[in-house]
């Protein structure tokens, strides 16, 4: 394994990387308040759906196609526009673009690659998170499937962390959810790696509704 690739992925996708991932629950906060997520099993079921047939799946397909686009600025511009346009609510749009814009700022400050500035400038003013992470991974020569797997894992782990805080669950319970998600993450990685853009989309409608409901939720800890 390329240790440098692993180091970069662990850094970019860790909770300490300055994109504010910890502030987003992807609608889980509303689902907990509504009594739809109450324990390990319901949290696992919810996140599995997000990863396999929801927003997480679409992000994975967008990531894969952005990686394959290489230095084709027009293709990346179209992908970025699609990623932003597909956000089903204002908070989901914030989730994908605020993290994306923050990632751009961080990598241009410390993790630049050849033509990074020009490529990132093409996508402004709002850059979709899965698109820019894929661009950085390719720019640094990180193998696609490794980067894609790490991206999906980090996204799922962030949702588990949100559930642990909201239900609440203990940290050990959160790890049990991560164990249960291993198969879903592996399956999504394999499927998304070869999926074209016609596969973008999903049927996790309640997750989208939760994101919409969260916008007017009275008491909120998270931004989505």
Question: Keyphrases for this structure?
Answer:
69% helix; 0% strand; globular; mainly alpha; single chain; Urease accessory protein UreF; 224 residues
Give the full name of the CATH homologous superfamily: Urease accessory protein UreF
Q: How is the CATH topology named?
A: Urease accessory protein UreF
CATH architecture assignment name: Orthogonal Bundle
Tally of DSSP β-strands: 0
Structural class: mainly alpha
> How many separate structural domains?
1
Number of helices: 11
The profile of the biggest β sheet is:
none
Catalogue the unreliable spans.
none
Molecular shape: globular
Class in CATH?
Mainly Alpha
Radius of gyration: 16 Å
Write down the overall mean pLDDT.
Answer: 96
Order of secondary-structure elements: HHHHHHHHHHH
Termini separation comes to: 36 Å
Estimated share of beta-strand residues = under 5%
Helix content: 55-70%
Secondary-structure topology with pairs:
Blueprint: H1 3-12, H2 28-33, H3 40-53, H4 55-69, H5 73-85, H6 90-110, H7 116-123, H8 129-139, H9 144-166, H10 171-193, H11 205-214
Helix pairs in contact: 3-4, 3-9, 3-10, 4-5, 4-8, 4-9, 4-10, 6-8, 8-9, 9-10
If you had to describe this structure to a student in words, what would you say it looks like?
There is one protein chain. With 224 residues, the protein is mainly alpha-helical. It has a single domain, classed as Urease accessory protein UreF (Orthogonal Bundle), CATH 1.10.4190.10. It contains 11 helices and no strands. It is globular, with a radius of gyration of 16 Å. The model has no long low-confidence stretch (mean pLDDT 96).
């Amino acid at each position: 394994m390329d240790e440098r690739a692993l180091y970069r992925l662990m850094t970019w996708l860790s909770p300490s990387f300055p994109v504010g991932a910890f502030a987003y629950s992807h609608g889980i906060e509303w689902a907990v308040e509504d009594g739809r997520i109450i324990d390990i099993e319901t949290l696992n079921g919810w996140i599995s759906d997000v990863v396999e047939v929801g927003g997480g799946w679409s992000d994975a397909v967008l990531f894969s196609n952005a990686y394959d686009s290489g230095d084709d600025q027009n293709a990346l511009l179209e992908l970025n526009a699609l990623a932003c346009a597909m956000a089903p609510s204002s908070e989901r749009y914030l989730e994908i673009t605020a993290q994306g814009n923050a990632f751009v700022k961080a990598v241009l400050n410390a993790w630049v690659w050849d033509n990074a500035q020009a490529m990132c400038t093409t996508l402004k003013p709002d850059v979709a998170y899965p698109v820019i992470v894929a661009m950085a991974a390719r720019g640094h020569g990180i193998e696609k499937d490794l980067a894609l797997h790490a991206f999906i894992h980090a996204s799922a782990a962030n949702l588990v962390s949100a559930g642990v805080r909201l239900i609440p669950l203990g940290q050990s319970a959160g790890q049990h959810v991560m164990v249960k998600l291993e198969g879903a993450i592996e399956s999504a990685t394999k499927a998304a790696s070869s999926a074209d853009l016609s596969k973008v989309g999903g049927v996790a409608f309640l997750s989208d509704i939760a994101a919409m409901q969260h916008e007017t939720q009275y008491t909120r800890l998270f931004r989505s």
